[in-house]
């Protein structure tokens, strides 16, 4: 199997990012009072309705980790089955809650879910998916092999605009409890990226909140979870009442990225605000 997937789409390309669903093995199980399978299903249903109303679908679904919560492979089956109606190829990467090799094995059973981590999009773009998981730890790190792979792919397709995806946050969130779980070696990542002027954005999950910022001249995008939301700028663990969300990303042929975050129209999945952690 090729390590590349070629998406034969020129012109404007539409990506859908969904992240941190934290799915359980049963639909009634909750994460801090939120039934995560049901909140994920609600997000997918609203996206489907939007597609039907606008007649504008997506070319690729990007899932940026923490697909499951309880280390049970049933959650991966839920993820695959619930994304199948989108009728769109899905690519994925690991979060700190995910379990390998189960993740790759189960997702590999579904034809719409792709294993490749380098996606060549038309003639202008490439999407590179990085694994920042450190087994058994909440923080993230890019190992030597991931950094080397990234450098190789950037050199190999230096004429293409590049979007990079990973799970862990690079920028601090101004929340002490959360920042200890960020990407530990962002300085090494910066050294790899520094010679390249074709990197148009980095997108991630992990922090369960929206961020649109800039790091070393590169736009950084973090996306709300499809389950619980973390309240920004809180040194102690604090949940937010914002609804579940997703990010839509438009890649233009001239290298411009256009992106918006959308959320559920309802607020039916409220968390336990008294929770001190999870």
UniProtKB/TrEMBL annotation:
The record's free-text note on cofactor binding: Binds 2 Fe(2+) ions per subunit.
UniProt-recorded name of the protein: 3',5'-cyclic adenosine monophosphate phosphodiesterase CpdA
Cofactor(s) recorded in Swiss-Prot or TrEMBL: Fe(2+)
Source organism (scientific name): Mannheimia bovis
Pfam families given in the database record: Metallophos
Sites where the protein binds AMP: 22, 66, 96-97, 208
Enzyme class: hydrolase
Binding site for Fe cation 1: 20, 22, 66, 208
UniProt catalytic activity: 3',5'-cyclic AMP + H2O = AMP + H(+)
